[in-house]
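Figure S4 source data
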Amino acid sequence: MGLVVFLTSPPRGTAVALQPQPSLQAAIIPVTVATRTVAPTYEPTIININAASAQELQKLPNIGPTTAQAIVNYRERIGQFEALDQLLNVSGIGSKTFEGLLGLISLENE
C-alpha cells in the first residue's frame, strides 16, 4: 500500500489559509536480526553444506559470494564437515550468522 499525494496550487492572488491536518500514524518496527533479511515466502530448502556449490550456499540468509566461497575452500582443505558448528571456523561466519542458518543447513541430503 502506498501513499499518493496530489498537490494543486490556488489561482494567483488568492490567499491561502493553512489548516492544521490530523497527524498520520506511522508503524515503527525496530530493526533486529529478524528484520534484516526478507523472510522466504516458500518452504525453505535445507542445504547440504558438504555438497553445495558456492552458488547454492548463497541462497542461505546472510551468506554472500565471499563467505560462500570461504565455506567451499574450508571444506576442500579439511574435508567434509563432521558437525554443523564447524562452520564457526569459516571466516565470515560468526555466532549470529550461524544461529540464523540452523534449520536451513545439514551435513547430508535429507
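Figure S5 source data
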Amino acid sequence: MKRILSTLTALLLCSILFAQNDLADNILGEYSGRTGQFHFHARISRSADGTYRADVIHVDNLVQRDGSILRDIKNPDKSLRDTPADRIVIFTGLQYYPQQQRWGGTKIYDPRRGIKAPFDAWFTSPDKLNIKGSLLGVSKTVCWTRLK
C-alpha cells in the first residue's frame, strides 16, 4: 500500500511540475531574484509579437550611501549606462519551446557584469523558475521565486 501511495504521490508531483512547463504563459508574473549582492524583483510580460520580456521593477539599496541612484554603469550600450537599476531590461524576445517545455531563444543581460548570455528557463516547482545562462562553455543556473 505504501508503494502505491508513494508512486501516486510521485506521479502527482510530476504532473504538477510538467503543468507549469507546458503552457507558454505560465512564465508570466513577478519574481524575486539575486545575483551576488544584487537583490531584485522582475516582471515577465508578453510582448505584442508573442515573445516574453523581463524588466527589473525593484532593486534593494537603489539609493546608495552617497545619495546617488544605482545605475546600469556596466551596460555595453553606452546610451543605457544612465538607466536606473530598477528600470533595466533583463531580456526580450524569449520564446517558448513546447517540445522541450522550456523557454529560450534569446540572451539574458547580467547588469552586474555588463554581459549578455544565451539562456534557458524552466520551472522546478510552481513558484521556482530556473534560469541557466551559458557563455564560452561556462554555465550558471539561478532560481527566481514567483511573487505574483
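Helices lie at 2-21. The CA atoms of residues 16 and 137 lie 32 Å apart.
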